[in-house]
């Protein structure tokens, strides 16, 4: 059974993330969405809220793709989280070159800890490539329309949160 781990902060989950999840489903039998506690990033949504939004979107994606998708909050090292969930593959999304430097280092460090876990990079469809949770939150705070960037349920939660 091929298990993939797709880690991130998901603050909140965007259409960029869901596009990557849909693509990852074609590669694995079970996809675990690792929701990082990541208090250092100062998330807008609590861990519980982020997990609930991920679970709601994944239920739809699971029905659509036929792949089992589960959310798994984690606070430890990514490679240890991969071991915890039995993942042989770590999935990451790549946006522009800006993501590359950081991801390059991550792969190197993770490989040094466990060379048997492979990292696979996926690119979202062109119209979703520029989406970043950080920018979505800024746009929403300034009263902009984020309906092209996040699922409808997430947009609702975002507007309720921002007030
Ligand atoms: P963000 O950087 O938007 O806050 P996360 O930290 O939750 O998102 O990112 C989790 C993973 O999803 C990372 O591998 C990130 O590069 C990837 N990702 C996020 N948004 C996109 C997107 N629009 N296209 C491709 N990959 C993405």
TrEMBL record:
Subcellular localization, as worded in the UniProt entry: Cytoplasm
The protein, known as: Phosphopantetheine adenylyltransferase
EC number: 2.7.7.3
Reported cofactor(s): Mg(2+)
Keyword terms of this UniProt record: ATP-binding, Coenzyme A biosynthesis, Cytoplasm, Magnesium, Nucleotide-binding, Nucleotidyltransferase, Transferase
MF GO annotations: ATP binding; pantetheine-phosphate adenylyltransferase activity
Pathway(s) the chain acts in: Cofactor biosynthesis; coenzyme A biosynthesis; CoA from (R)-pantothenate: step 4/5
Gene behind the chain: coaD
Family: Belongs to the bacterial CoaD family.
Organism: Aliiroseovarius halocynthiae
Role of this protein: Reversibly transfers an adenylyl group from ATP to 4'-phosphopantetheine, yielding dephospho-CoA (dPCoA) and pyrophosphate.
Cytidyltransferase-like domain: residues covered: 5-138
Annotated catalysed reactions: (R)-4'-phosphopantetheine + ATP + H(+) = 3'-dephospho-CoA + diphosphate
């Amino acid at each position: 059974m091929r298990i993939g781990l797709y880690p991130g902060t998901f603050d909140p989950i965007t259409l960029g993330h869901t596009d990557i999840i849909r693509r990852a489903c074609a590669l694995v039998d079970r996809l675990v969405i690792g929701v990082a506690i990541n208090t250092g990033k100062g998330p807008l949504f609590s861990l519980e809220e982020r997990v609930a939004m991920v679970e709601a979107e994944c239920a739809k994606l699971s029905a659509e793709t036929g792949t089992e998708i589960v959310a798994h909050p984690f606070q430890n090292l990514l490679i240890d989280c991969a071991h915890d969930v039995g993942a042989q593959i770590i999935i990451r999304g790549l946006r522009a070159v800006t993501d590359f430097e950081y991801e390059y280092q991550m792969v190197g460090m993770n490989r040094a800890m466990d060379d048997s876990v492979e990292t696979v990079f996926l690119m979202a469809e062109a119209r979703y490539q520029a989406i970043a949770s950080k920018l979505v939150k800024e746009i929403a705070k300034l009263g902009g329309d984020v309906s092209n960037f996040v699922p409808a349920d997430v947009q609702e939660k975002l507007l309720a949160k921002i007030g």
